[in-house]
Amino acid sequence: MKTPASPPPAPKHTFPESLATVTIRPGDREYDAVRHTYTRLGSPAAVIRVRDHEDIADTLAHARTTGVPVTARSGGHGISGRSTNDQGMVIDLSRLNTVEILDSRSGLVRVEAGARWGDVAAALAPHGLGLSSGDTGDVGVGGLATAGGIGLMSRLHGLTIDHMRAAELVLADGSLIRTDPQHRPDLFWAVRGAGTNFGVATAFEFQAQPVRDVIVAMTVYDAADTAAFLTRWAAAVEAAPRSLTSFLTLVAGPGGRAVAQAMTVYAGTDAVQARAALAPLLSAGPVLRNHATVTPYHRLLPAGHEPQHAQQPLTVSRSGLVDHITPPAAESMAALMKAAGMVQLRSVGAAVNDTPPTAMAYSHRTQNFSLMAATVPALRDSLDEYWERLQPHVNGLYLSFETRTGRRQLQDAFPGQVLDRLVSLKAQYDPDHVFDSNFALPSVPFPH
User: What is the DSSP letter of 195?
Assistant: First the structure.
């Protein structure tokens, strides 16, 4: 695979004196370590490693004065690749990384947006607490907490945003505000699912759950009969108790033969109950390897370390949500895997669907699976061809797993009146569209 050509050099900008000691620019020794993300090469004019909300306000003021695009980054792991840019500014939140236990008895915690979820899990563990928050420890808090948060205990505890109790944001005018059910409840509705479009989130309050040890099973299947395997695995997941959540990765193995690897978490330590819950999944297809163990939950999310940015070759991704994996849907997914090279399914449903669809901007509360396919740029056309064939079986989109942000993607991510309401709130909180780099909301609603 050819290395993508580097973008043209970023133009020189004069930045506020208040940001001099926190600004990294092309030519600086640290620049190559902060310019890219996990999936995207970037050439920003500057990366500002902010220390507080005043630094964010100064950066936003500069952006509004000069018209330079601005992007916020919490961890840089995001599959969408939208936390860097070319010739703009990146607000790097990594220094805002405090995790504070506000009330260990109720589980109320305050987490700054630049922390990584592995560090959050480690900080909560001594208190017997946890938050279902993705499946990788080096993911930053801010991006996931404003998008949804499909985690390894989602079927028992719901999405990460379902446990958000408040958020702190720096708005486009530089003001630091708190939003919760009593303070700017309309903005709090928007933050939970579309927060990157309304401000720079600096911290959140969450209601963590009692979590200690879990049982995790790593299973590798021969998935040569791919469609039949997917149908059986999905049916077993849907029928499983809520304590079970399973993530499945499907790839072409040696000779093109499909291989599936499942990471399944049973949120509890009762071995008898866990064995009964796991058994139907083991019947989904020929098992090549299987290992189950009891482990503290936080060890599933190793404490965050700086990721190897721009090392992920699968830089083109497509995202969808699926109510049920029927045989025709499974056939389409099997063909998609052969065309793209990698397909992932994350189980949702159960507790995720307990939250009313109108409660927040993330409104997808009927689906049982989140689907993502990824490939290298050279296979983009093939991926899109087979993705289109799958569309009759897809219902919605999880925007953080999608590298496109056009009208169709917005309407799939925020259906009907949800998008209309977001457009209205955008006009109120960010009329100049300062926060459009993650995805751009239209100025007026799309025709229905």
Answer: G
Under 8 Å between Cβ of 256 and 203: no
Closest Cα to residue 439, out of 198, 197, 199? Answer: 197
Residue with tokens 């790097």: 92
- Alpha-carbon span 87 to 8, nearest angstrom: 9
Enumerate the β-bridge partners of residue 210.
129
Q: Answer for the pair 158, 354: CB distance below 8 angstroms, yes or no.
A: yes
Query: What's the one-letter identity of residue 372?
Result: M
The string of pLDDT tens digits covering residues 386-404 is: 999 999 999 999 999 999 9
Q: What are the structure tokens assigned to 374, written together?
A: 């990824």
Rounded CA gap, 143 and 121, in Å?
A: 16
Residue pLDDT, tens place only, 150-205: 999 999 999 999 999 999 999 999 999 999 999 999 999 999 999 999 999 999 99
The rounded distance, in Å, linking the Cα atoms of 165 and 204 is 8
Do residues 373 and 332 make contact, with C-beta atoms less than 8 angstroms apart? Answer: no
- CA 322 – CA 69 distance, rounded (Å): 35
Distance in angstroms (rounded) separating the CA atoms of residues 37 and 77: 6
Over residues 317-328, mean pLDDT: 98
Q: What is the pTM of this model?
A: 0.94
